[in-house]
Amino acid sequence: MLEHSNKKIFLTVVIPMYNAQTFIYKTLKSIINQTLKNIEIIVVDDASTDNSNQIVTKLIQQDNRIKLITLNKNYGSPSYPRNVGVSNANGDFVTFVDADDTIEKNMYELMYQTAITTKSDIVICDYKKIDEDNNIIEIVKFDKKYISFKDILNNTLNPATWNKIFKKQLFTKHNIKFENKIFCEDLGNTHELFYFAKKISLVEQPLYNYLILSQSASHKKINQKYINDIFIAINTTYNFLIKQNIFNQYIIDFFIRYVKQLNFLYTKIIKDNQHILLQTLIIFIKNNTFFTNDNLCNIYKKNHNIFVLYNILLKSLNLPTILCDDKIINNFLTTIDTHKFIYLQLKIFTLLKYNIKEIFIYGYGEPYLIISKLLLKNNIKIIGIIESNNNNRTLQYPYGTLSTFTPILNNKTIIIISSSYYNEIKKNIKQYSLKHNFIINIL
């Protein structure tokens, strides 16, 4: 066994585990091999039914820094195991690792040193999304130098706990616990830790490896419980703001969080073809008790963009818009790039709603670059680009004029990405006597 002295424990690593036999060995080895040695590793087994427990038990024989706590029943989410881990932690700082992820060898040394030298209560690092073959899907960076409570409240910063270390005192002094039995526990409680932190720092290196699995929660079809969990997290956030008497101070940031979460649920419902669940979303919005009419008017004045985006979502759900007409919405979409992207995403889900899997794009320019990525991400095939002049550009799809594609355009969907020329293009298409086209003006 690798013996470690009874030196002061700098950091406790908490790993909630349930049926993780495929990954837990690799996960633990990446933690055991950390350059920061003064750590303890607490694995909380949520009543696994596979060989996870036995794998951890064998590793304990090799390294006495690992502790295994086995729960007598399954609690259905990582929340309770995390709370158990925190209550048993002996480190000055606490962090969390998902049982299927890995970390870079120097992650905790860099983060702990940053915490000490900057006197920070929370330290964050960038992270990588990887697939099962360890290929990098995306490197996620946070480019703000100064991090505050607002960043976590309005979801500018990912609320996940696994790329952060927290001073344990934040949990104990303020009695912070993760919301039990919900899968989005980070969304419901991480903001509390940020609120009470006196200083938050960032290590600008991707040190955490977040594994994307096809069968993971984020890739499973949305269901009623998942939606209810998001609603619980939103309510938990609201109740915290009220309790601390800071709701009015942070009302715009909370509204941004509210709209982002509703948009996320709407797009996932459409993408997963679970349209029956839209009614749950509609009822939640109609029963909104967070914002009075005066609140909404003030938000409209102070953050016009997010308010218009909210109205776009209302229109998508066939709900009445608030303080906005179509002219305002259309003008907004031609001027705000960031929110245009989100609106384009909603439009893409219209294609999925009608089970459209193959399309032609009419026009090539900056919007094409955004749209093509969204289409591919959602498994919608681009058959060709209709463009009168390609300006010697190299396109990865067949391109040509309407006459070039006329023989195969019947019964196909054409996306128009130029609102300025929409009527002219539509008239042009009509001249070719094409049959049964589904034409969408994407902008």
Short recap of the structure:
The chain is an alpha/beta fold and 443 residues long. It has 3 domains: 11-217, Spore Coat Polysaccharide Biosynthesis Protein SpsA, Chain A (Alpha-Beta Complex), CATH 3.90.550.10; 221-313; 356-441, 3-Layer(aba) Sandwich (Rossmann fold), CATH 3.40.50.720. The protein is built from 17 helices and 14 strands.
Label this structure with key terms:
443 residues, alpha/beta, nine-stranded mixed β-sheet, five-stranded parallel β-sheet, 17% strand
Describe this structure in words.
- The protein is of the alpha/beta class and 443 residues long.
- The protein folds into 3 domains: 11-217, Spore Coat Polysaccharide Biosynthesis Protein SpsA, Chain A, CATH 3.90.550.10; 221-313; 356-441, NAD(P)-binding Rossmann-like Domain (Rossmann fold).
- Helices cover 43% and strands 17% of the residues.
- It contains 17 helices and 14 strands.
- It has helices spanning 24-32, 52-60, 79-87, 107-118, 149-153, 168-174, 185-196, 224-243, 251-271, 278-286, 293-302, 304-316, 326-333, 337-353, 366-377, 402-409, 422-431, and strands at residues 11-17, 39-45, 66-70, 93-96, 102-103, 122-130, 136-140, 164-167, 200-211, 358-362, 381-386, 399-400, 413-416, 438-441.
- Strands 1, 2, 3, 4, 5, 6, 7, 8 and 9 form a 9-stranded mixed sheet that branches. It has a 5-stranded parallel sheet with strand order 12-11-10-13-14, with helices on both faces.
- Strand 2, helix 2 and strand 3 (66-70) form a beta-alpha-beta unit.
- Helix 8 (224-243) runs antiparallel to helix 9 and helix 12 packs parallel to helix 14 (337-353).
- The model is unreliable at 335-339 (pLDDT under 50).
